[in-house]
Amino acid sequence: MKHIASRKEEEAISDLINELFKRGLVQTLHLNHEGIPRYCRLHPKIHNVLVCKSMEEKFVTVVNVQGYQYFPINNGTVHRLSLQSNSSRVQAVAGNDYADLSRARSISIFGQASSTPHLTDLKVVRVLDLEGCDGPVCLDGLSKLLHLRYLSLRGTGVSELPATIGELRWLQTLDVSSTKVKKLPPSIGALLRLRYLNIRDTDVSELPAKIGELRFNLKAILVGSKGRFNSVETVTKLPKAIQHCQCLEKLGTIDIREHHASFVKALGGLNCLRVLKITWSSQQSNEKAYREALVSSIEKMEPARVPNHPLWFPLFHGVSWLRA
What we know:
Strand order of the largest sheet: 4-3-5-6-7-8-9-10-11-12-13
CATH architecture of the largest domain: Alpha-Beta Horseshoe
Helix content: 10-25%
CATH class of the largest domain: Alpha Beta
Low-confidence stretches: 228-232, 303-324
Number of helices: 6
Shape: globular
CATH topology of the largest domain: Leucine-rich repeat, LRR (right-handed beta-alpha superhelix)
Distance between the termini: 36 Å
């Protein structure tokens, strides 16, 4: 019943978002191959109004590249900070020269990674967003951010995650996509509240078996490539323990070339799974064991779990299979 309620909530949210598109308050920047908006932005005028209003209410502090800055003149406490350049003023903020960041709850950096404040000074931060930052990223003290819920290192030069990342017991989102990371620390199994894991477009060849311990909250695992098909460089093997993650709703893109047919069949036991993306070789598409395993998994997905449940699923045994 939980996944049914979740689906109704998502439909309501989708209706609200579509209304924003219709009114022009949100603009589409890029569509994916299915015609679904992949990147969006607020209308510039709406964005400016929201920024100004947020500053008036002392909800956020912004320092940008033009030197046009919304920043308290006195030594006020900053709760939500957005640094959008690498100017001397931004460097001063990053170094906590005249800003108290000890109570900052959200930090977003645009530009140089060197603008990031010292992590050891961020006592209660919950959101740390470094997506797309240029230059070396220093993660010293990351494991001390005990209140951290959201961590995005997407598109940065990070090549290794701290072995102690498992100490971030409240972490819900971990995004290291499009980085140079090659391995996830085994301690990731201690992130019991993790809901979203994105390692797409990395050189991570295998998820640690400890991922199976995230069975109660993990809802999405994104591996492989952002494109429709995996490349050799981005093939990531999933452990058998993945079948214990009974809250998974989205899993992809799995390259079946790295898995046995029994693994594919076991995916049907993921009771909440709603999105499953796979690729396979032409050889596997001709092997009866793989075809039957895939059919078995799909047939277990009830219409209540898959809203667009194709009526032709039962006919899989008699159709001509597409070659990869």
